[in-house]
Amino acid sequence: MQEKLLAIANRTGADIEATGNLYVKTSRALKEYGYTQQEILTFTEATNNAMTIGGVAAEQQASALLQLSQALGSGVLQGDEFKSIAESAPILLDTIAEYMGKKPRGNQKAGQRG
Questions:
Q1: Which among 47, 59, 60 is positioned nearest to 12, based on CA atoms?
Q2: For 109, which DSSP code?
Q3: Closest CA to 4 of 41, 31, 30, 36
Q4: What is the predicted pLDDT for the residue at 107?
Q5: The predicted structure's pLDDT at residue 38
Q6: How far apart are CA 109 and CA 86, in angstroms?
């Protein structure tokens, strides 16, 4: 697993520690919903890619990934965690929405929720 996570971190230019933390917390949160190990690895890589594509600096990436992993660990993305991610990595919110089968923010009509 360490090799797979290192490969993801290298492909996406993300911090290996933040990538590992994200994977572990994501795994804990999503396994109970039937997600496979491969799906969780795919989510981890997609999350890292969203940060890279969004032009997020390494320090902001680590901070946003920490916030996301904390939210996944608690099962809720709200308040300061949501605000931190929205400010430092807004594309990440769209990636999460798409992965969870929801409409990204830009594809919603006014007044609709995803």
A1: 47
A2: P
A3: 41
A4: 52
A5: 93
A6: 19
DSSP state of 34: T
Mean pLDDT, rounded, for 19-37: 85
Tokens 């006014």, residue located: 110
> How far is residue 52's CA from residue 77's CA, in Å, rounded to a whole number?
21
pLDDT at 111 over 90: no
Domain ranges (residues) in the chain: 1-102
In sequence order, what are the residues at sequence separation of 6 or more whose Cβ sits closer than 8 angstroms to the Cβ of residue 102?
114
pTM: 0.69
The CA distance from 53 to 109, in Å, is 25
Mean pLDDT of 42-53: 84
Q: Which residues contact 3 (CB under 8 A, 6 or more apart)?
A: none
